[in-house]
Amino acid sequence: MEIVTGAMNSLASLLVDEYQLQEEAKHHIVFLVDELDSMQAALVMISEVPFSQLNEQVKAWARDVRELSYDIEDSVDAFMVQAQATRESNQQPDPDGGLIKGFMDRIRSFWNVAMSRCQIAANIRRIKKDVEDVSERRKRYKLANGVAKSTVTPIDPRLPAMYEDFGKLVGIHEPRDELVKLLMGEEDGGLELELKVVNIVGVGGLGKTTLANAVYQLLGGEFQCRAFISVSLKPDIKRIFRSILLQISGKDCANTEAWDEREYIDKIRHFLNDKRYFIIIDDLWDYSAWTIIRCSFTENNLGSRIIVTTRKFDVSSSCSSQVDGNIYMMKPLSYGDSKRLFNRRVFNSQDNCPDELKEISEKLLVKCGGLPLAIITIASLLVSKPRKTLDQWCSVHNSIGRGLQDFPSVEDMRQILSLSYYDLPPHLKTCLLYLSIFPEDCKIERDHLIWKWIGEGFIHEKQGISLYEQGESYFNELINRSMIEPEDIDACGRAEACHVHDMVLDLIIFLSTAEKFATLLDCHQPIILPRNTRRLSVVNNDDLVLSEATMNLSHLRSLNIFSTHDWMLSVSISRFKVLRVFDIEYCYGQDLNSQYVMNLASLLHLRYLGLRNRYIYELPKDIGNLQFLQILDLRNNDIYELPPSIVQLKNLVRLCVDDSTIVPHGIGNMKSLQELFNLGVNNYTSQYFLDEIGCLTGLRVLHIRFPIFGLQYRNEAYDRPFLQCLHNLEKLQTLSIGGAFEDFLDFMSDSWWVPQQLQSFSAFNPFSGVPSWISLLTRLSYLTITVDIMRPEDLEILANLPVLCFLSLDLNELIHGMGNSFSATYCRNSLPSKQLLVYRTMPVERLTIGPDGFHSLTELKHNTMELVFAPGAMQRLEELTLRFRVRETKDRHGNFDFGMENLSQLRYVKVELGCNAARASVVEEAEIAIWDAADNNPNCPIVEASRHREDSIVQEEEDATQQDDAWFPFIFSPGF
After folding, report:
1. What is the reported pLDDT for 822?
2. Which residue spans within 840-967 are E strands per DSSP?
3. C or N terminus of the chain, fewer CB within 10 Å?
4. Are residues 369 and 337 in contact, defined by beta-carbon separation less than 8 angstroms?
5. Is residue 543 part of a domain?
6. Could you read off the pLDDT of 904-923 as tens digits, one per residue?
């Protein structure tokens, strides 16, 4: 793991002239940095070896290095806190103290500075001695190469998958047939003759090798020669070539030991030149290995085929012979297949589970998540028990995902899954192990996780790349490597959250515990805190009682509470001397008492403070003391005003507040800020406040809200300062604007203020039409906008945005065209409770979206049926959300046909029908039209339809007594 990098950075920071350390101390620091760099290299080598293959001396040495690096960071932090306090005291002399008192204060200050430097020098000498001792121990134990491994090569636990009896496999037929169709696709009634490479992608244990072998056995006889090759994590290219040559030729290759790679490639190509061949490249980890192996396969237009299995999506994309269509994503087993496999392994029958074990067996299957390896492993574990009792099965269930079981089949599963872990670079190993602090089955928000990584110090500055952007690349890399599973994929393909498969969680908790990386307090585990606990996660310990005397918390760096019990909040904050991360956002217990909150300012080492959803009403006045603080999340609280000292947080990168919270003047001095959430501009905020926001030139994300100014109109005096503020934010990528006022946002119609880097824009108040400056946003991928009137030129602006992936388009003015005689603004402002007056009119023409434009759009949300999709429209659209009022649509257009059948890539449709004052038969007509359009769509999308205000549907006999006046007004609220 990347452990000592933080310590090296901390030491290097002391070399700046600002601290004016003694020359001897500087020399010691240079020595320490060099020595730690050497230790880091050794740790990297150790981290590439499975933990079970390391001897105890290596493990102990690695733990000593980690503990030493933590101590170094803590010592340096303590010195920097003291130095900062001394500087501040020097800058604030007492004006009423007189000459003598001023002289004495300066003497005292100089003394404090001298003592501080002497203390850090003494600490550095002590650290140097500790580092020398650890380094000497490495030499004494002959650990210079970093590892001391077992000389016995373990058997690959994946080997049985290649020899599994096909008749015993469960759930293999459907994926096998799908893969065969993809592999052997026909062109113009005949076989595609070009060489075709198909990739099977999925997490370890999902059955990639088994599926590839099933296809291999089924189709192998149709080819003149074939080979099945396992590449492995660290491939031996010569061995691979030798195996290919042996399998395709059937001849002994003993005399080829002296050949180099080129000779093997030439020999294999010559042999395959006039033959139709079938090759399986199993378990490919690196694209560079594929580039070499691929050289041996000739393209002879004889219909040859290659299957590549890999756990990495980016590797599969690089190997595929086409950009799209040749990647097969492995799917988990269905519940039915999972149950059949489980019962067959445990009871030798597909349906012979005793009644008393059915409920717990279902829970076990949920834990396995359709992963065949997990099902077989757990089944083998249960079969090994002398008796099949409910208590034993419950014990196994409770141990899954906690790294507790010690059984051969469990070890085999961990060995298979751990291959992915040991392939990770050191920084990703650290980030992955950190996921062990989250509860099982937890949905982990991407932003929450990334900012916690930053707070923990796992992510370091790189030139031109923000901390968040670098953290996001780590997050995406873990998804690409199948270590975490994405959730809530947005229109731009980004995962808004992730979760960890229980079996992967079991692995990382096992590794985290073994390496003393983090400690998990869980109701299913004994309450034992290791010595020098560094990271503590409290999960579901509702009945936990643990006295302070039994806990050693002086070294605790990270405290995360995911429990409804607030026992930890009763522990004195003074115990957390070096705490860096304090996160109780998911702790749903009693509210924090005011005294506890006031004491938070004493946690001088804090980097991350998560107090979301805690219902606190004030912060400590001296919160500015937290000079290292980078992330402060205060959302969903009752804080009326932030203390003035908060503007002293020079290292704060992310600030999240409620829009009702008053932020003090001076925020413009917080130059490190990159993200501001829910910043409120209200009656208590001056125009100069916006000028200060404009000084935060590093800001990437701004969510700003304008609460009510007296009535429901905005204060026009803020228009120019607001636009000037946005103009200054040249790095702004995400902008969200909202407020209680109902006036138009047309004061933003000029283009001079537009940040050119903007990628996401959300406005929750209306424009009169689509502003022309949106056409300048060539990087805009996410747009939420409300307009009063939609004109053809407005639609053209949106259609020409080159990378727009998501569009939420709401129309306030529901009568299309210029023939309308009344003002939409007049209607809104003349009616109470935000109600809108609409007159039923004769049918009018809709706006048509043709094949030109919207080339990148994958998700569309729209609140009327004013748009019609022509053939070829929106060719990448996959998700459509449509909200419309049934009665109005029928009256205005006469039907519910909007061309949904022309959206060729549509996968999912969500329709919300507003039934207010609509006849039952018309509502049914609308639903039938939606279903018919979906049936006529070539992609057969999934449709989810729902009714709103169903209680206001007008029955036919009631409607017959009403006059059907074409100009009869009716009133409805925007929420249907």
Report:
1. 29
2. 847-849, 859-862, 867-869, 879-885, 908-914, 942-948
3. C
4. no
5. no
6. 999 999 999 989 888 888 99
Nearest-CA neighbor of 39 among 130, 124, 151, 126? Answer: 130
Q: Which domain holds residue 623?
A: 591-732
Residue 550 vs residue 23, higher pLDDT: 23
Pairing between strand 186-187 and 190-191? antiparallel
Look at residue 566 and tell me if it is in a domain. no
**Do 840 and 941 belong together in one domain?**
yes
Helices (H), 348-463: 355-368, 372-383, 390-399, 408-422, 426-433, 446-456
Give the per-residue pLDDT at 595. Answer: 73
Residue 824 has pLDDT above 70, yes or no: no
Q: Are residues 249 and 311 in the same domain?
A: yes
Q: Pick from 502, 529, 549: which residue ends a domain? A: 502
Domain CATH for 478: 1.10.10
Domain count for the chain: 6
699 pLDDT more than 50:
yes
CATH (domain of 621): 3.80.10.10
| Spatial separation of the C-alpha atoms in residues 75 and 590, rounded to whole Å | 35
Average model confidence (pLDDT) for the chain?
78
Q: How many whole angstroms from its chain centre is CA 550?
A: 36
Residues 943 and 808 in one domain: yes
**Cβ contact 534:68 at 8 Å:** no
- According to the model, what pLDDT value does residue 728 have? 92
Distances (CA, A) of 817 to 317, 972, 975: 47, 21, 24
My answer on whether 614 and 473 are in the same domain is: no
- Nearest to 929, CA basis, from 960, 972, 884, 966: 884
Residue 713: pLDDT over 60: no
Report how far residue 819's alpha carbon sits from residue 885's, in angstroms, rounded to the nearest whole number.
21
- Each residue's pLDDT tens digit, 103-151: 555 565 555 556 666 776 777 777 778 777 777 776 765 654 445 444 4
Residues 109 and 245 placed together within one structural domain of the fold:
no
| 396 plus 471 within the same structural domain | no
437, part of any domain:
yes
Same domain membership, residue 234 and residue 135: no
| Distance spanning both ends of the chain, measured CA to CA | 55
* 591 to 147, 464, 521, 669, 838: CA distances (angstroms): 49, 41, 22, 32, 47
Q: What is the pLDDT of residue 14?
A: 61
Q: Which CATH number fits the domain that encloses residue 195?
A: 3.40.50.300
Per-residue model confidence (pLDDT) at position 966 = 36
Separation of alpha carbons 43 and 24, rounded Å:
28
Q: What is the pLDDT of residue 841?
A: 39
Q: How confident is the model at residue 83 (pLDDT cuts 50, 70, 90)?
A: low
Greatest distance between any 2 Cα atoms in the chain? 102
Query: Do 659 and 724 sit in the same domain of this protein?
Result: yes
Mean pLDDT to the nearest integer, 401-406: 56
Residue 917: give its domain's CATH number. 3.80.10
Q: Last residue of some domain: 140, 167, 198?
A: 140
Quick one: pLDDT at residue 831?
Answer: 36
C-alpha–C-alpha distance, residues 806 and 793, integer Å: 19
d(CA 551, CA 547): 7
Residue with tokens 């388009």: 809
Residue 123 resides in a domain: yes
